Amino acid sequence: AQSVTQLDSQVPVFEEAPVELRCNYSSSVSVYLFWYVQYPNQGLQLLLKYLSGSTLVKGINGFEAEFNKSQTSFHLRKPSVHISDTAEYFCAVRALGNTPLVFGKGTRLSVIA
Amino acid sequence: DTAVSQTPKYLVTQMGNDKSIKCEQNLGHDTMYWYKQDSKKFLKIMFSYNNKELIINETVPNRFSPKSPDKAHLNLHINSLELGDSAVYFCASSFLAARADEQFFGPGTRLTVL
Lengths: 113, 114
Hints:
The structure holds two protein chains of two kinds.
Chain A: E1 3-5, E2 10-14, E3 19-21, E4 24-26, E5 31-38, E6 44-50, E7 56-58, E8 64-68, E9 73-78, E10 87-95, E11 102-103, E12 107-112
Chain B: E1 4-7, E2 10-13, E3 19-25, E4 31-37, E5 43-50, E6 53-57, E7 64-70, E8 73-78, E9 87-94, E10 104-105, E11 109-113
């Protein structure tokens, strides 16, 4: 079975500052890794995903994430945040094959003007 | 055009009632899912259907019964609603066999049981 730990439940950050949202996972098999964003009162939207290959993955809205196999981490970063980035961010994993997405508990990013 | 749509968006009902939530996707995907998001924002898979067949069934009370009339629709029927069923329910879809397997989510249905 897989599990995901998002180490911070809330992250406040000033506008134009950099941000890192942390995600660690646990799995005995190879996994795909995802970051989803949920804006207030909306569904989830995929930010980026890691399947294989280059460990640095670039996504939409200027976000990127780095897969670190030895540390079983997939931290999300953005060099300069905007007010519009205020949202809930979910890290998720899925094992290969016919298995469900397993989500972390989410990190609430609040960007302060 | 909405890729994954759900109706209704809000549902307020009394304990003990039976209710349904509908989901439709126009992406041509062969797999659909139901997730429950609780008051602490925790998201958990409930069911998954591939080509109208149940492939994932997590530990969910049998008061919840998914129905897939065709691969573009996956409806969720809930019998004898309880207070603890209050949550936001998300439908999603994807290609099961595709390597990327990105899941596209609907806007959610906020269920409130009084």
